[in-house]
Design brief:
Shape: globular
Distance between the termini: 46 Å
Number of strands: 21
Strand content: 15-25%
Structural class: alpha/beta
Largest sheet: 8 strands, mixed
Number of helices: 16
Helix content: 25-40%
Length: 520
Amino acid sequence: MAKHEHVRVAVIGSGFGGLGAAVRLRREGITDFVVLERADSVGGTWRDNSYPGCACDVPSHLYSFSFAPNPDWPRTFSGQQHIRAYLEHVTDTFGIRPHLRLNHEVTKMAWNGDELRWEIETSGGSFSADVVVSATGPLSDPKIPDIPGLADFPGKVFHSARWDHDYDLTGKRVAMIGTGASAIQIVPSIQPKVGRLTLLQRTPPWVMPRVDRAISGPERWLHRQLPFTATARRGILWGIRELQVSAFTKRPNELGLVERLAKANIARSIKDPALRARLTPSYRLGCKRILLSNAYYPALAQPNVDVVASGLKEVRGNVVVAADGTETEVDAIIFGTGFHVTDMPIAPRVIGADGRSLAEHWKDGMEALRGATAAGFPNWMTIIGPNTGLGNSSMILMIESQLNYMADYLRQLDVLGGRAALAARPSAVGAWNRRVQSRMERTVWKAGGCESWYLDANGRNTTLWPGTTAEFRRQTRAVDLSEYEVLRAPAKPQAQDVGATGGRDASSASASVREKEAVQ
């Protein structure tokens, strides 16, 4: 029998969100916590995504923690291996290793209203925690569409986030499904070695040049010797992106100039008018994530590449069939089809106060108060929750804002004293969500004329934040107790002398009722 462990805080996941939470807990003086990680190492999406060409599309000095600057980033846009190494470095520098429970996949967590704690079952043992911080991330579980005939395909099939490094693509006929951020990095990386590459494209992306370069030795030396120079560099990168936000959220028509630049980027590499037409989007730039690459279009122009302007419909033996009827024989199928974002895989495993799962609560769409707490789930919060994503800047900025909120949440529990829990009021969650969705209507993500993974099955954008990162930082600076209900543990029955009570059951004589304090 695996032993049971009780902790004050259980953090789920060890990507940027989970490690950031762990560091913040230690900086707050909290050491009674564990980080439950299903894999055998830290890193989250930067551990799982190791496909050829994998790199970040946010500048390195902005895509790192403000409390853990890295003066030695090798490039302005760093690759997967450098970001993963950075996360390992953070783990060691801030003493997180003793708190890690690797190979501990959470299979179920349920709220115990009598004890005011979470009961957690994992593949490596059981735990209980006063507070749960879920940092599983939206880009954690690959999404492969249900394609007729795929199960009978005789060749190799894998998702970009589960790359098979043992399979040699040299000389193979390969079908690349999807044209998202992963695909535009994979295509130019594998094009020179494959025999033939067929890209099945449902919707072309807007792709801008990637202004990437090696960071020189003198620059890195300067950042090491004078740390304020790296801070200033980060500040400039942040400020530029903050100034762009209004075009995405209030005035999408201002993006027309950028569209012309993007079309010029296509024209530079794609000389065939028919191919250029297939690669030119018909929706407003920014409606889907703007992608960055200098190599994508040149790769598509090579003689061993075919672009099919239609999605994958079915597979017949070793033939992939597009929705427009195009048939292509292939040896391997690579899916770059994204992740379960609006249907978080952790949601069915989280059981709230009413016995229903988070997935049931969110069946009509995800919503959380300030992107962190959900009604019906006391002392549970999520990092990178609903409507906290960004379309043009670094998610690390949003994560750090949510860590501020987490820290104040725990401070409020300390102030309350005793065995207490905070439960987000449904009215507060609803009011917050209505404000966010109202603002979303005029954004480019809703009005830009496209379908994207930002939208859920009901067409609502439950993923992105319709404002600046500075505004979100203000909104999550502190917990507003009027938005919460305080739960107190029921009083324990007192032992009684059977003779004095005439044999009456002591527990029935003092039935416990959960105390709910309305904090105004």
